[in-house]
């Protein structure tokens, strides 16, 4: 007899209920992402009780789609519904974490990761069977979503929380230093710094031509002349970067998914002046599966690793370290790359990442 038929019935039923919850929550991630992208949450946050037609009109959307979306939001207990009047409202407590003007982080931004990853599911299944990886260009809207995430996690905290990890760094930026951002994406963090510190000069590198084009356009729009962006593969940074050219190098969740993380780290080490500093934001977690059992975002992060970070590295013939390469691995790589001092910090505003301050 098959072993599974002798399973504990209560445990099996409990797990079945958990799987049903997973399916429902996964589906809600898709509809929450739609609510964010269409502006429905933002619209409803400013409204009293309203019916589907009124909500659709206020959001300038099609009523039939809004009505069905409201069904998902109602049964998902995200939106309140009064069946007697046929009206709906977004509770203030929910608006706080699902709108662009909420007091905390907009969690609907993170929900968008699920449909982005779902778009490459078939490619990932093929990789399970045949090996290889899925390249960056297959991920639609990836840089757009990452920019939104950066707007919450990195940009508003740069000057007050991240840069002060290094004593005197803000003062040096005010006086004027050279800064490099490796894996800058759409450049939102670097453009923010360029505007805040006009006496310093800033350079951003990223593999994506589209992301670099966006960053350049934004720099022009804000009138920054002290920032430049370049589309390039940073795998050869160790051999091509100008030695001792930068006072500060930054990476934001950009090392673990590189094709050759060690070469990039060595290139960063080469790029730094002898008294320079490297600030690396990367994923907080353990290299060991059992070490992440209590991590609040571990299932999400391993899924992101399987369907993005690991596979884009493998697509370039890389190591495929994955999102959960772990703090142990990160510290080992940084030491092997030639950094003599690495200090690790956890910041209250960011439960997903750890910050490393590295010196040559």
From TrEMBL:
SUPFAM superfamilies: S-adenosyl-L-methionine-dependent methyltransferases. It comes from the Bacteria. GO terms for biological process: methylation. Signal peptide: none annotated. The keyword Transferase applies. The lineage of its organism: Bacteria, Pseudomonadati, Pseudomonadota, Alphaproteobacteria, Hyphomicrobiales. InterPro entries: Methyltranfer_dom (IPR025714), SAM-binding_MTase (IPR053173), SAM-dependent_MTases_sf (IPR029063), WHD_Rv2258c (IPR048711). Residues 174-289 form the Methyltransferase domain. GO terms for molecular function: methyltransferase activity. Residues 27-100 form the S-adenosylmethionine-dependent methyltransferase Rv2258c-like winged HTH domain. This is Class I SAM-dependent methyltransferase. Transmembrane segments: none annotated. The keyword tRNA processing does not apply. Gene3D superfamilies: Vaccinia Virus protein VP39. Keywords: Methyltransferase, Transferase.
């Amino acid at each position: 007899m098959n072993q599974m038929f002798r399973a504990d019935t209560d445990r099996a039923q409990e797990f079945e209920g958990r799987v049903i919850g997973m399916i429902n929550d996964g589906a809600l991630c898709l509809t929450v992402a739609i609510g964010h992208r269409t502006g429905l949450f933002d619209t409803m946050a400013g409204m009293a009780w309203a019916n589907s037609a009124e909500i659709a009109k206020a959001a300038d959307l099609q009523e039939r789609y809004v009505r069905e979306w409201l069904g998902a939001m109602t049964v998902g207990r995200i939106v309140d519904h009064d069946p007697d009047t046929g009206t709906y409202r977004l509770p203030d407590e929910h608006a706080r974490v699902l709108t662009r003007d909420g007091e905390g982080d907009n969690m609907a931004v993170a929900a968008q990761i699920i449909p982005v990853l779902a778009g490459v599911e078939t490619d990932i299944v093929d990789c399970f069977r045949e090996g290889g990886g899925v390249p960056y260009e297959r991920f639609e809207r990836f840089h757009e979503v990452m920019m939104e995430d950066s707007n919450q996690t990195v940009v508003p905290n740069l000057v007050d929380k991240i840069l002060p990890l290094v004593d005197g760094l803000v003062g040096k930026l005010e006086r004027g230093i050279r800064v490099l951002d490796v894996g800058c994406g759409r450049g939102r963090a670097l453009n923010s710094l360029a505007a805040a510190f006009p006496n310093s000069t800033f350079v951003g590198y990223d593999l994506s031509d589209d992301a670099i084009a966006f960053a350049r356009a934004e720099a022009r729009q804000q009138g920054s002349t002290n920032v430049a962006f370049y589309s390039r593969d940073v795998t050869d940074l160790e051999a091509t970067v100008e030695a001792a050219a930068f006072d500060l190098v930054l990476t934001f969740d950009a090392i673990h998914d590189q094709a050759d993380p060690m070469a990039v780290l060595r290139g960063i080490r080469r790029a730094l002046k002898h008294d320079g500093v490297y600030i690396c934001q990367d994923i907080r977690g353990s290299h060991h599966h059992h070490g992440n059992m209590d991590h609040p975002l571990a299932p999400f992060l391993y899924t992101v690793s399987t369907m993005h970070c690991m596979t884009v590295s493998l697509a370039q013939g890389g190591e495929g370290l994955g999102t959960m390469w772990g703090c142990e691995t990160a510290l080992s790589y940084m030491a092997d790359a030639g950094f003599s001092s690495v200090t690790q910090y956890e910041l209250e505003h960011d439960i997903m990442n750890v910050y490393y301050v590295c010196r040559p």
